[in-house]
Amino acid sequence: MEIKSVEEYMERIRVLDALEQQAMGLSRMLTTYTDRLQDRLDQRVEIETASEEAVLSSIKNLEAAVNKSVQQKQQLVEQCRQLDSEMKDTRKIMHQVQEIKQLLDVMEYAKRKA
């Protein structure tokens, strides 16, 4: 490509300058967009990390609550077994009292008849 005149040369330089300016503008826009994208990705990572920590914390708290509940139920079952064992003598006495009451009722009935 041969340059025929200084004017053509100058025109080509202006065109190249304009293209360079457009390329620089596009480069700045691309840099701005990539910076914004990186900021959003960083925010997303922070949100995801916080969310994950909250879920893990909730799971740990739920596990602790379940374990505590299981322990309390085990203690309650043990107390019930202990009470049941202690009540055996009380049941024996209750049956004896019922037998005595029945004997007294029979004796009182027999006394009225006599």
Uncertain segments are none
The tally of helices reads 1
Helix content: over 70%
Topology pattern, helix = H, strand = E:
H
Strand content: under 5%
What would you report as the Rg, rounded to the nearest angstrom?
48 Å
**Structural class from helices and strands?**
mainly alpha
Q: The biggest beta sheet, please?
A: none
Count of DSSP strands? 0
- What's the pLDDT, averaged over the residues? 91
Query: What would you call the shape?
Result: rod-shaped
- Give the distance, in angstroms, between the N- and C-terminal Cα atoms: 150 Å
Observed structural traits:
single chain; 114 residues; mainly alpha; rod-shaped
Overview of the molecule:
The structure is a single chain. By secondary structure, the protein is mostly helical. Helix content is 95%, strand content 0%. The chain is built from one helix and no strands. The longest helix has 108 residues, at 6-113.
Structural topology:
Elements: H1 6-113
Brief characterization of the structure:
By secondary structure, the protein is an all-alpha fold.
